[in-house]
Amino acid sequence: MASTRCAACKYLRRRCPSDCIFSLYFPSNNPQRFAYVHKIFGASNIGKMLQDLPLHRRADAADSLYYEAHCRIKDPVYGCVGIINILLQEIYNVQCQIAKIQAEIAFLGTHAQSDQTQYQQLQIAPNLDPNFLSEQKGLSNSFDDSSTWFF
Amino acid sequence: MGGNSPCASCKLLRRRCAKDCIFAPYFPSDDPHKFAIVHKVFGASNVSKMLQELPLHQRADTVSSLVYEANARVRDPVYGCVGAISYLQNQVSQLQMQLAVAQAEILCIQMQQEPAPITTTSPVLLDADDKSSYYLHQNNLPQFLAFSSSNNNVIYDSFKKESLFGQDMIS
Hints:
The complex is a heterodimer. By secondary structure, chain A is mostly helical. Chain A contains 6 helices and no strands. Chain A is rod-shaped and about 95 Å long.
């Protein structure tokens, strides 16, 4: 019955002890996972980081270390920080779009109220000089019914 | 007067600081903490290899990003930078929902004000090159982040809108 070494011990070409700190988080079926974290952080640092954490946090820590290593290999200059910058830009852009639409909503709401007010004024005072309002709106002086009051 | 003082890395590593020391331009002796934290997380040897593989003009930004990541990892030993990414992705999702709601609202208002039949060219007031539909879909970021933010006890400072390094990092 052959015991399988974890990916870390295979990579480091050493015996995989029963209490190997890497074995749970770097299984032998995914050698790339350990290769990436080792390239960026080093096996010794990974081991120390995992040892400093309680057992129930180590899986997430290993995952996040792999993610960071993966980002750094893909983008050797900025790594994860490049992604953070992109997200900050996205947040800013979407906030700007929301602000723009809310301003347009406010404007349309004001515009609708203004039209409504003028319509009500016409209903209340039908004997107003029609030329007065048409001059205001730039409409032709000749009109027949109130429907021409509106654009 | 005497020779140059060793850089922060050579001081910490207790070695002679060569004239062509790869760390010297980026880890001055007046900021020992900067190298200490990068060494703690990544290791001097790994940092040296990373810098050697990059052209000169990119090394300063690389060091800055490494320092940032190292600080994030020390502050949050479980999630590091990835916690910040997860947090920001949640923010983006929430804002995208708000944007969708605002867009629906403005469409309703327009439909109420102009009851003419809506053509296929929708009379929305958004720009023709509006990227909101892009943001509503999944972005190209790796969707690795299955961490629930409630597990993360680190409180993130409000991220500033400008680049982390004071200059535009996005090419």
